[in-house]
Amino acid sequence: MFAQKSPLVSVIIPMYNSAQFIPQTLESLLYQTMTNFEVIVIDDCSTDNSVEVVESFTEKFGGRLHIIKLPKNTGAAGTPRNVGIQFARGKYISYLDSDDLYTRTALEELTTIAENYQADVVYLNDTYMFLPRDLTSNDPRIFDLAALTNPANLVFNDWRTPILPRPKPLPAPFLESDNLIERVQHWVSWNYRFATYASFSRREFLLENQIAFSDMVVNEDMVLNFTCLCLAKNFVCAPVVYYIIRPTANSLSRDGRIDENYFIKWFKVINDGFNEFEKAMDRMPALDDKSSLRYSVLNFFFVTNYSRYISNALNENYVPLFYKSLKKAFQTDSAALTTYLFDMTNNLLLQNMKLQAELKKVKGMI
Hints:
alpha/beta; Spore Coat Polysaccharide Biosynthesis Protein SpsA, Chain A; 2 domains; eight-stranded mixed beta sheet; four-stranded mixed beta sheet; 42% helix; globular
């Protein structure tokens, strides 16, 4: 299935019904300034012609493109990525979503930094958002690949809110402290972006430490990046901006429909995330007697998800639905978490009411 020579990088792409998007994702790999890499696409039982589309690129990649078809749909990106890691042969692992893109020098820059610092992980804290000004079609999925070289089409991805501050830009690569407590404190102080694309990892480091994605529906990348931060010997923070997010309505985490299932989904993410972070921290003896720091990690995970996905949807219209969903999502054995959720919700509702009252007052003065 694979060529004999091992590549320097394995790019792992989980795919589900991406026929409309993945051609340009693959094109962004074909125009890389570095060619010593393989691409592993893991199809999660697509029901469209995604596999056929990827197969049409096989000749262009000259044996560097591989397709793995899973026997059943997993419903999440974590499991396909784990399969990709197991099949990969590259020294380094890089992740790319099937609807996103790389800058032209992405892999060359990442491998240069990793080699120079003998890094277990190269961490990136910024991305671009692709917002083309001039399209050859009314469909934003169809554009001339040359548009990626036009700086006017790339803007920094300021997805954070005032509650979720953006990390400070880095002037140059640097090695993170080797003190675990300091690393965790940096984590809970909002110094890291925790998406999958923020991590460029040495494959043997992942395998030796049995680091893998959980089967969470979303935010499995947050747990993995936290584990990498804690276990990596050489964790390099770098200023490279190489990942380009292409806004689509194709992503589970970007689905903005507000209904009972929406709240239940995010309550499950929070509950599962608490369990996964507890398991991750249990692997680190230095945290055994650091109950306050462990709590900070769990609280950080909660606030991050709550602020992005629940509080933004929480207004007077959805409060009854929220409480109904909360009762359905948690049983009596989750009493502590349920109490915490109710308390946080009431505080946020009071804040929202106060802000709305102040806004009305300001509008009345205009």
